[in-house]
Input
Amino acid sequence: MTFILKNVARTLPVLVIITIIVFLLVRLTGDPVSLMLPETATDEQRAELTEALGLNDPLYIQYLTFLSNLVQGDFGESFRYNQDALPIVLERLPASFELAIASMLVATVISIPLGILSAIKRNSFLDVFITGFAVLGRAMPNFWLGIMLILLLAVQMGWFPVSGRGNAMNLVLPAITLGTAIAAEMTRLIRSSMLEILNQEYIRTARSKGLLEFIVINKHGFRNALIPVVTIMALQTSTLIGGTLITETVFSWPGMGQLLVQAVNGRDMAVVQAATFIVAILVIVSNLLADAAYRFLDPRIKYE
Output
């Protein structure tokens, strides 16, 4: 528990840096007043909105005001939706979580058996085939794979819906699209980790005791190879939640990715700020959970 509290404390400077970046987003994209008002607005209207937003104050005062509002969950009002930005982002978060979990499940189901088989059958035809699959899966752009799946399985075969979020069938194609790239990366990582573990002396000792190969591989080998896999899963989960921009747009999946694309195109910076901050928080939480998982997987790991 102590190391978790210390890690949480270490994230505070990171959060401060994130707030600075999010605060500067609006300033770097142009005049907020010009974004909010139509081109026909008068000078008096521009001056009134500038004063209301506190843009006449020094920059550090504006940042402190922004920080105070942020602590209260106030990222400003979306001029597209005419409501606070944070509830809009949080409303889309469950859809992104659903897609992220399904994609990670697809990646795990594919990568674990393939990675273990590739390590056990090293330099065989099966190893070459799995490695080739991993390279191909990593090289294919998500948007291209998504479009191909739509054309083949949705349009021609009619097995799945083309787009939208409804039942489990709507989730299959976007989950495969996102999970394929992660599965390719995890497969290679599991293979390399298993190869390193299988050459350890305690594996040879376990085999010399007459244990079944299944027990040696799964109990003594795979568990010790999981630590780098947990790291990549933690990083990929946070990336999935906030980085599914193209895939959610291709499949019209109503998650944070699609919302962020729409907000950027519409220059709705209040929503962009809220979404960016939420994704940053999710990344930090994922890393904290990964640190806790290390201790569970390998009790030898100690946190000073």
User: Anything to note?
Assistant: The beta strands are 77-78, 83-84. The chain has two domains: 2-74, 93-297.
